[in-house]
Write a structure and sequence with these properties.
mainly alpha, two-stranded antiparallel sheet
């Protein structure tokens, strides 16, 4: 089972990947990804918006514990488009900084969380049984980010 050190190490791994790609990203930010309609900078805007996945999942846990359902989510495409639009004036360096700062906040947040929060069962997309919140923190944080960084790296090659 995933533990907090696994999540922290995975987030730090994402930061190292982005740092290794930084110069190439800065030089080729307008490069389109091979899939979809996004450019490298659009994917970075999305990653910046989601950089603190620990707090996002913790909010879901708190809502579940309080018996308050989370508000229905608009279409994922609308959410993603909004994330990109909100950051259209940001430089690519600023997006990379926002990701790094969000990751640092996520690491601090997970260090402060109690085990009951990390173990709280949550329903995940494509999972028939509820999973501990920490699994969602891993999959929806560095797991998700890694997929987008794979796309970015492929576009830069």
């Amino acid at each position: 089972m995933t533990d907090r050190d696994d999540v922290i190490a995975a987030i730090q791994g994402i930061d190292r990947r982005l740092e290794r790609l930084r110069e190439r990203i800065l030089a080729q930010a307008e490069q389109p990804l091979h899939e979809g309609t996004w450019r490298v900078r659009d994917a970075l805007s999305h990653l910046a918006a989601r950089a603190n996945g620990v707090d996002r999942v913790t909010q879901r846990v708190r809502a579940a514990q309080a018996g308050t359902p989370m508000a229905p989510v608009a279409s994922i495409d609308e959410i993603n488009a909004g994330q990109v639009l909100e950051r259209e004036g940001a430089t690519v360096a600023e997006l990379l900084d926002e990701i790094r700062v969000g990751h640092a906040a996520a690491i601090e947040a997970i260090r402060r969380l109690d085990d009951a929060t990390l173990d709280h069962p949550l329903t995940m997309v494509n999972r028939p049984e509820p999973q501990p919140a920490i699994e969602m923190m891993m999959r929806g944080g560095p797991g998700h980010d890694g997929g987008h960084i794979d796309q970015i790296e492929a576009a830069l090659d």
